[in-house]
Amino acid sequence: MLNLVLFGPPGAGKGTQSERLIGHYNLVHLSTGDIFRANIGGNTELGKLAKSYMDQGQLVPDEVTIKMLQSEVEKHSNAEGFIFDGFPRTVAQAEALDLFLATKQTEIHQMLSLVVPEEELIKRLLERGKDSGRADDQNESIIHNRIEEYNNKTAPVADYYKSRFKLSEVEGVGSIDEITDRLYAAIDTIKK
Ligand code: B4P
């Protein structure tokens, strides 16, 4: 099995790059942001709850997010591995993921962290906000809240994996193809 965490601040390109990596390595893509947005689209109870946080640029509470992620993993019992995109976003989520994967006799093999400066993130998200319909992309103060949540709650998750010798930092500025090639190189090193 190959289990990867694709990590980075909002707009770093996690979703964009995940789409490429899944085909190349035959992995299942689990994006908590996408799952929440599908629930919002379906007007489910989970969607209504998630929307109240996401529209403000805040993280959805851990308890809800962890339970949801675990049930998604359970749906893919034959998977050759997973790309976790946007999860874990807190140290509590990282600890819960480790405990959960241990019950499946597996683990996270590597975190790939996309490094992108803040001005570039804001530019990308505002650009996407022009036609994505995403409330969290349309307003610069909500984007700042997302970056602040990232700095306060999510950035420490990289240290969690670093202390376990499982962190690879990848330059996230350049063309989408260039960044994909950097990720392939980092993953191929891990697989050796
Ligand atoms: P997510 O859906 O995870 O998304 P994201 O942080 O907005 O962006 P991502 O990094 O995937 O960027 P993308 O590739 O799309 O989170 C949304 C919200 O959901 C969170 O704020 C939170 O509320 C909630 N949530 C999700 N997971 C959670 C969790 N675990 N716990 C609690 N809450 C959670 O790229 C962005 C843009 O940049 C795109 O338009 C793309 O085209 C462009 N782009 C990508 N690569 C580029 C490149 N190389 N050059 C130029 N532009 C590029």
Task: Characterize the structure shown.
With 192 residues, the chain is an alpha/beta fold. It is 58% helix and 14% strand. It has a 5-stranded parallel β-sheet, with helices on both faces. Helix 2 (32-41) packs across helix 3 and helix 6 packs across helix 7 (140-154). The model has no long low-confidence stretch (mean pLDDT 96). Residues 8, 10-16, 32-33, 36, 53-54, 57-60, 65, 86-87, 89, 93, 124, 128, 136, 146, 176, 179 line the site of BIS(adenosine)-5'-tetraphosphate.
Structure in a nutshell:
With 192 residues, this protein is of the alpha/beta class.
Question: What would the keywords be for this entry?
Answer:
192 residues; alpha/beta; five-stranded parallel sheet; 5 strands; 14% strand; binds BIS(adenosine)-5'-tetraphosphate
Strand content: 5-15%
> What number is the mean pLDDT?
96
What is the N-to-C succession of helices and strands? EHEHHHEHEHHHEH
Strand order of the largest sheet: 2-3-1-4-5
Number of helices: 9
Can you tell me the residue ranges where pLDDT is under 50 for at least 5 consecutive residues? none
Explain the layout of strands and helices.
Elements: E1 2-7, H1 14-25, E2 28-31, H2 32-41, H3 45-54, H4 62-74, E3 81-85, H5 91-103, E4 110-115, H6 118-132, H7 140-154, H8 156-162, E5 167-171, H9 176-191
Parallel strand pairs: 1-3, 1-4, 2-3, 4-5
Helix pairs in contact: 1-9, 2-3, 4-5, 6-7
This protein binds BIS(adenosine)-5'-tetraphosphate.
